[in-house]
């Protein structure tokens, strides 16, 4: 099953299409995000081949791997260290929530490494450094 999932993930990556917005090259201020062409005389809406492809039903990922990370793991969003206990390390990887602070993030990362769970968005743990002692502080004591 794992080899079939990897094959499907490679196939999903191979057919990744870029859909460009109509008149993108004509106006600098337009963002490169897809917007459906709605004009009455629009060549792109009428599916002229030279005007670019539309996102359609053939471009989606296979149903068997929908929701999978490109690494082959199923993604789970985690906010607490207790959320890691019901996760299967062989098939699932965790993504730490954006609103999680530094202390809790460090606790989640250490617990994930002990359980053998892959973290998709690890950050380097910040260490607390004591302030250097100045001459004035020494003389006050």
Automatic annotation (TrEMBL):
Highest taxon, organism lineage: Archaea
Q: Can you list the GO cellular component terms from the UniProt entry?
A: ribosome
Record region (Disordered): 39-61
Pfam families for the chain: Ribosomal_L32e
Q: Which InterPro entries does the record match to this protein? A: Ribosomal_eL32, Ribosomal_eL32_arc, Ribosomal_eL32_sf
Provide ranges: composition bias, Basic and acidic residues. Answer: 45-54
- Which key words are in the record? Ribonucleoprotein, Ribosomal protein
Matches recorded under NCBIfam families: PRK08562.1
Question: What family is it from?
Answer: Belongs to the eukaryotic ribosomal protein eL32 family.
Name of the protein in its database record: Large ribosomal subunit protein eL32
What organism, scientifically named, is this protein from? Methanocorpusculum petauri
Its ancestry begins with:
Archaea, Methanobacteriati, Methanobacteriota, Stenosarchaea group, Methanomicrobia
């Amino acid at each position: 099953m794992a080899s079939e999932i990897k094959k499907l993930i490679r196939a999903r990556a191979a057919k990744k299409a870029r859909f460009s917005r109509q008149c993108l090259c004509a106006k600098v201020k337009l963002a490169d995000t897809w917007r459906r062409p709605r004009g009455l005389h629009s060549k792109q809406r009428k599916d002229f081949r030279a005007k670019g492809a539309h996102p359609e039903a053939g471009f989606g990922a296979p149903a068997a791997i929908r929701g999978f990370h490109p690494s082959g793991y199923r993604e789970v969003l985690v906010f607490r260290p207790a959320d890691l206990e019901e996760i299967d390390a062989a098939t699932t990887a965790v993504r730490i929530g954006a609103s999680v602070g530094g202390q809790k993030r460090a606790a989640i990362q250490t617990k994930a490494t002990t359980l053998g769970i892959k973290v998709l968005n690890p950050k380097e743990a910040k260490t607390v450094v004591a302030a250097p002692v100045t001459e004035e502080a020494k003389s006050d004591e």
